[in-house]
Amino acid sequence: MFSTNLLKNEEKAVFALRSLYQKYGYTPYKMSKFEEYDLYVRNKDFLVSDSVITFTGMNGKLLALKPDVTLSIVKNTKDIPDSVQKVYYNENVYRVSKSTRDFKEIMQTGLECIGNIDDYNIYEVLLLAAKSLEAISESFVLDLSHLGIVSAVIESIGCDRETGRAILACIGEKNQSGIEKICADKGINAVACEKLISLVGTYGKIEKVLPELHKICDTDELKSALNRFESICSLLVSGGLQDKINIDFSIATDMRYYNGVVFQGFVENVPTGVLSGGQYDNLMKKMGRKSGAIGFAVYLDTLERLNLTTKKYDVDTVLLYDESCLSEDIAKAVNTLAADGKSVMAQRNVPESIKYRQLLKLGDKGVEVLENND
Amino acid sequence: MKTMINVALPKGRLGEKVYAMFEKAGYECPSIKEVNRKLIFENEAAGVRYFWVKPSDVAIYVERGAADIGVAGKDILLEYSPDVYELLDLNLGKCRMAVAAKKDFRDNTENTLRVATKFTNIAKDYYSKKGRDIDIIKLNGSIEIAPILGLSDVIVDIVETGKTLLENDLEPKETIVPISARLIANKSSFQFKTEQIENIKNGLKAQVKTDD
Q1: Domain residue spans in chain A?
Q2: pTM for this structure?
Q3: A267 - beta bridge partners?
Q4: I need a surface site. Which of A13, A24, A188, B197 has the fewest CB within 10 A?
Q5: What is the dihedral of CA A159, A179, A256, B186, to 10 degrees?
Q6: What is the DSSP letter of A221?
């Protein structure tokens, strides 16, 4: 058996999450590495980055290395009336990194729940999102928003589409002064402006935020969106998740694809969100589908530097040998050391840039110690 | 142990003014005023650790979580679009991003407009909204020279008093956006240090001077 200490954070997470998703009846979904480019062109705005690596397949079709998993899953599942398909995946995707402006391979795991989505399905996905974060770190927060509420607040102002987009960007930045400026420039009345500012300033635990939301939600549309959101929140509270969930409307997602509940997960000491997801019925409609859908992705590449410890040594032992040594003797010495639970590197010369605990030499009289660094 | 808040401050006059606001809000760190080459200052009792960085780098420190919060100009936030929260307009370091050109400049819409700037994204965004075809010339300094030497037709740059422009026979033609210093926060840090960051924000907000 191997020690789990050998595994990197992201590898540990893959095992933990796979077992978690299977426990809740999600089945693995393995897909091809390539997808027809056309799928991404038609849904370009859904992608995190709009650049895609393309190449021509053997049949002359333009193919792409997958920049996203959800679109492929949606494309390859069928609408089955009164049924819900639950799948999880662990795939590499290829996206442009914002910092290097070049393509990067990103390991991503996640799940999708597609079909006749009810409140229980939403709760279950949120529960699994919270449990996924818990599997990564004890210190985590799951931010939860409802786009029905956000869009109804913006619509209630009656502004044009461009202003609505600018307001949404300010909500995503928790930028109250930005909202005040837009309202002043566009002549939006003080009451509507106050409502937007309250929405940005209202975040935190469920029991604190819901009463605040009642003050903002004064139209029929808002009341109905709040009603839907409250029923999800009460399920989360009864499931004991209230301590780890924050309501926060600053989760910025594209309303052309997402609707209803959207969420983002953070773990302490990772500077970016490690999980994001939501209901994407609008995407389903856009792709000609009748079903609803909800899902999330965990960005495993973000975990690389979590609790990073620098290894003092690359290897426990370097075993030097020369031409006079018989291969059988070298093998025997290596096996003996390895059997003691040590890592052993057999070399003819002392390797450069390798830090070792102990330097040994195999000679006529057996193994002798040349250097001890402990 | 008290949770420490890491604060990235912009080096220079603006940073000093910002630190004075933090100090007044109860987050003093006397060692910061000592004359030496140190870049990091800490007051464990107040729960703050300050560091001076180049103004254009503040957003990078905050976005990548090396700093929990920081103070950056709106020009930098617009140019680099870092994924951070913009919690407060400090109404300090006020200036504007503007298009400037030689006094006798007339925009000939038949030709591509040559724009010299450090702020390529802001310039591209501004002219694409106007539907104007432009050629961007990215410069890193002395932007004002570009129209004088015929390198560009206009420049997009920060204008504070307009004095430098005037001395070079240029004048501001259009304002793109007003600029001021903003308190920004890392999105993940905000989740785990909400109360401390909010307290700092409120302490600073109480000191923000309004224009009227």
Answers
A1: 4-32+69-308, 313-372
A2: 0.88
A3: A140
A4: A24
A5: 180
A6: H
* Beta carbons of B87 and A174 less than 8 Å apart: yes
The widest CA-to-CA distance across chain A, in whole angstroms, is: 93
Could you tell me the CA-to-CA distances from A312 to A10, A315, A353, A354, A360 in Å, in that order? 21, 9, 13, 11, 18
pLDDT interval class at A301 (50, 70, 90): confident
Which pLDDT band, with edges at 50, 70 and 90, does A307 fall under?
confident
Please count the residue pairs, one from chain A and one from chain B, whose beta carbons lie less than 8 angstroms apart.
44
Report whether pLDDT(A276) > 90: yes
Expressed in angstroms, the distance from the first to the final Cα of chain A is: 27
Please give, rounded to a whole number of angstroms, the shortest distance from the CA of A87 to a CA of chain B: 28
Residues present in chain A in total: 374
CB contact B92 to A (< 8 Å): no
Which segments of chain B have a pLDDT < 50? Answer: none
- The pLDDT, as a whole number, for residue A143 is 97
Tell me the β-bridge partners of B72.
B182
Residue labelled with tokens 């933990």: A16
Looking up tokens 């004991």 gives A240
Mean pLDDT of chain A: 89
Query: pLDDT tens-digit profile of B9-33?
Result: 999 999 999 999 999 999 999 888 7
Q: Where are the alpha helices (DSSP H) in B84-193?
A: 120-130, 145-148, 163-167, 187-192
**Contact yes or no for A271 and B186 at CB 8 A:** yes
Hey, what CATH topology would domain A4-32+69-308 get?
Answer: BirA Bifunctional Protein; domain 2 (3.30.930)
**Is the CB of A266 less than 8 angstroms away from the CB of B64?**
no
